[in-house]
Amino acid sequence: MQATSDVDQTCGMSIAIDVVGGKWKMHLMWVLAEGPVRFGQIRRKLDGVSEKVLAENLRQMEASGVVHRELYAEVPPRVEYSLTPLGESLSVALKPLEDWGDQHRDAILSRE
Amino acid sequence: MQATSDVDQTCGMSIAIDVVGGKWKMHLMWVLAEGPVRFGQIRRKLDGVSEKVLAENLRQMEASGVVHRELYAEVPPRVEYSLTPLGESLSVALKPLEDWGDQHRDAILSRE
């Protein structure tokens, strides 16, 4: 008998996990959904993320096509991050998950 | 000025991330949505997960109230994992994310 994996690495959930897997990326989607933000603003909103990890996550989300990085040639230069149209559609797809958390907050927190 | 975090740790997305944060838990939700499964079956479906990590993730999801572990007193004993009603509702909330991945598969895979 040949051992094979049943996971189709291109199934929808695998693709989505590639893009928002890990806790920071889902938090980032939530922060970015509110509109363009600067790096420092994101860091203040995400308690506990290091500069290095935040930069890496934003780069990966830019590579996935869900985040846009805009550099404004000011002094000092200003960089803003926002969702691309693909990112906006992902944000919409994540909304039911956020609503689920809201609806079941008490049941889940009471177990912790 | 006092530095404070804007993240409400009890917001819906934070709760959801607590429950399904990390790549294995979202994969696990996807596997468990198909019905009760045994530990070995899950391992075969999730390519690359170690026994230790899988057991830990299942324990955490049981603690969150989304996974039920049933022990059948057979010889040898049989253990099956399934979604609780809370887990079923989470599975429904994750569906749009899976659909998003399906819909944008080509756009995302072409960037990798």
In terms of topology, how is this protein built?
The structure is a homodimer of 112-residue chains.
Chain A: H1 12-20, H2 23-32, E1 37-38, H3 39-45, H4 51-64, E2 67-72, E3 78-83, H5 85-103, H6 105-109
Antiparallel strand pairs in A: 1-3, 2-3
Keywords (chains A, B): DNA-binding, Transcription, Transcription regulation
Protein name (chains A, B): Winged helix-turn-helix transcriptional regulator
Domain HTH hxlR-type (chains A, B): 11-109
Question: Can you give a write-up of this model?
Answer:
2 copies of one chain form a homodimer. With 112 residues, the first copy, chain A, is α+β, with helices and mostly antiparallel strands. The first copy, chain A, has a single domain, classed as Arc Repressor Mutant, subunit A (Orthogonal Bundle). Chain A contains 6 helices and 3 strands. Chain A has helices at 12-20, 23-32, 39-45, 51-64, 85-103, 105-109, and strands at 37-38, 67-72, 78-83. Chain A has a 3-stranded antiparallel β-sheet. The longest helix of chain A has 19 residues, at 85-103. The first copy, chain A, is globular and about 50 Å long. In chain A, 32% of the residues are buried. Chains A and B meet through helix 1, helix 2, helix 5 and helix 6 of A and helix 1, helix 2, helix 5 and helix 6 of B. Chains A, B: It comes from Glycomyces rhizosphaerae. Chains A, B: This is Winged helix-turn-helix transcriptional regulator. Chains A, B: Residues 11-109 form the HTH hxlR-type domain. Chains A, B: Keywords: DNA-binding, Transcription, Transcription regulation.
